[in-house]
Structures are given as structure tokens and as C-alpha cells.
Specification:
By secondary structure, the protein is mostly beta strands. The protein contains 1 helix and 6 strands, in the order E-H-E-E-E-E-E.
Length: 85
């Protein structure tokens, strides 16, 4: 690793280092659109459902349309159909 000065010039390199993170894995929920709204992961305008945060259109607010929503970061949901970890 090396620091850079304000001009972008690299300084002396350090010995090799390693780093790890302790971040939590993203959470996923699969449910029908009505249940996603009831659980607070989506909103509705009375007709359509939108994932909270990303505002992705999930289709009509009913019990027939089912989606998987992935939360990452907290409170931000995206449609993750078919990509569940």
C-alpha cells in the first residue's frame, strides 16, 4: 500500500497487508406484491407496487404477482427475481 500526495504522486510502498470485512450478507424475501407492501418492503399507489428505495415497478397490487426483493443497503430494495443467494 502507498499514500499519494495532493499531486497524485505515490509515496513509499509498505509491506504487504491484508484486510477483511465483516459486512452482513444481503437479505432476500419472496412474496406476492400484496405481502411485500404489507411487510413494508414496497409501496403502492393503489394500482401498482414499487420496491422501496429503488422505486422499481413490480406490477399490479395483487396476490398473483410474486417477486423476490433484495435489501442492500438497509431500507433499499431491488427486484432480484432468479438471483436469490
Amino acid at each position: 500500500m502507498a499514500a499519494r500526495d495532493s499531486a497524485g504522486v505515490e509515496g513509499a510502498r509498505s509491506a504487504d497487508i491484508s484486510a477483511t470485512t465483516t459486512g452482513a450478507a444481503a437479505k432476500c424475501w419472496t412474496a406476492n406484491n400484496y405481502q411485500q407492501v404489507q411487510a413494508g418492503r414496497a409501496t403502492t399507489d393503489g394500482s401498482y407496487v414499487y420496491a422501496k428505495g429503488s422505486n422499481q415497478n413490480m406490477g399490479l397490487c395483487n396476490t398473483f404477482a410474486t417477486h423476490t426483493l433484495k435489501e442492500s443497503p438497509a431500507g433499499y430494495y431491488v427486484i432480484a427475481d432468479g438471483t436469490r443467494p
